[in-house]
Design a protein that fits this description.
Helix content is 6%, strand content 46%. The strands form two sheets. Strands 8-1-2-10-9 form a five-stranded mixed sheet. The chain has a five-stranded mixed sheet with strand order 3-6-7-5-4. It contains two helices and ten strands, in the order βββββαβββββα. The chain has helices spanning 63-66, 145-149; strands spanning 5-13, 17-22, 26-33, 47-53, 56-62, 81-89, 92-98, 101-108, 128-133, 139-143. The longest helix is centred in the last third of the chain and has 5 residues, at 145-149.
């Protein structure tokens, strides 16, 4: 029997939602202090700036704002330290800032559901593989790491 389970890192999106990204594109998870991020002018709002990581400049993106949620930094309890998920594809790296990591989960890819795009924020559609449902019938968004890294939003910056 074919094993269709994959390992995913799960985390919170917005106040109530949950999302996962496949571990195969995650290089590292960092705890970053906001004071360590250098802002960069003329970038999309969701790009918070760059961070010095392993001697390289890592672009940091507010994943929630990118997907259509209110910006992380606007929440009243803006965290002074945030978690960054570092994605890698063909030598390109991108850091996604999230409010809280929850777990590493093994999910069956055959149980993934596909949804009509108008079900979610329009901003989210290009970055969504589909979704899983958990035991409480809540949706867990399965985000497409490659679509995020290769987004035209970053232009030639990363």
């Amino acid at each position: 029997m074919l094993d269709t389970k994959q390992k995913y890192l799960s985390f919170h999106l917005g106040v109530r939602d949950q999302a996962v990204i496949s571990l195969q594109h995650i290089t590292e998870v960092l705890r970053i202090s906001l004071t360590e991020i250098c802002g960069v002018p003329q970038m999309p709002n969701c790009v918070l700036g760059i961070y010095s990581w392993r001697g390289e400049m890592l672009w940091l993106v507010d994943l929630e704002e990118m997907l259509g949620y209110p910006p992380l930094l606007q929440s009243s309890n803006a965290l002074s330290k945030m978690m960054a998920i570092v994605l890698e594809h063909e030598g390109k790296y991108l850091g996604l800032l999230v409010r809280q990591l929850t777990d590493i989960e093994s999910l069956d890819t055959q149980k993934m559901k596909f949804s009509p795009p108008d079900l979610f924020f329009p901003a989210m559609s290009p970055f969504l593989h589909g979704y899983f449902t958990n035991d409480s019938e809540e949706m867990i968004f399965n985000l497409d790491a490659l679509a995020i890294i290769q987004s035209p939003m970053w232009g030639s910056h990363n």
